[in-house]
Specification:
Largest sheet: 4 strands, mixed
Number of helices: 2
Shape: globular
CATH topology: 60s Ribosomal Protein L30, Chain: A
Oligomer: single chain
CATH superfamily: RutC-like
Strand content: 25-35%
Distance between the termini: 9 Å
Helix content: 10-25%
Length: about 130
């Protein structure tokens, strides 16, 4: 698959500086890929892994996203927007430490992080994203 994405980082000093590996906004052109929320399911067993470990769950979520991106002919560099759902905002730093290994801060996607009361299968984290190729 030939990638033809154009991605422009949007930054202004007139809005707050990001406090993590994300950007204020991304302008992108090309074919959009909408990746459904991914949770810590092992693709071989279809079972939840690491039920009480936010770090390990985030690693599994990112591995699942990476597999989907690869199937679409994309990488994490093609991701322009993510939404992170956390069961407990106290897990933010641990999730963010894993998340930041996949996105260089300078070119990271726009991101929202939301604490929710419950997630599918009672996982600790769910991440969805939009990529452009």
């Amino acid at each position: 698959m030939i990638t033809s994405m154009t991605k422009k980082i949007i930054r202004t000093e007139q809005a707050p500086t990001p406090v993590g590996p994300y950007n204020q906004a991304i302008a992108a052109t090309g074919t959009m890929i909408f990746i459904a929320g991914q949770i810590a399911l092992d693709p071989r067993s279809n079972e939840i892994v690491y039920k009480d470990d936010i770090t390990k769950q985030t690693e599994q979520v990112m591995a699942n996203i990476q597999a989907i991106l690869a199937e679409a002919g994309a990488t994490f560099q093609n991701v322009v927007k993510t939404t992170v759902f956390l069961k407990n905002m106290n897990d933010f730093a641990a999730m963010n430490a894993v998340y930041s290994r996949y996105f260089e801060e300078k070119e990271a996607p726009a991101r929202s992080t939301i604490e929710v009361s419950r997630l599918p299968k009672d996982v600790l984290v769910e991440i969805e994203c939009i990529a452009v190729i």
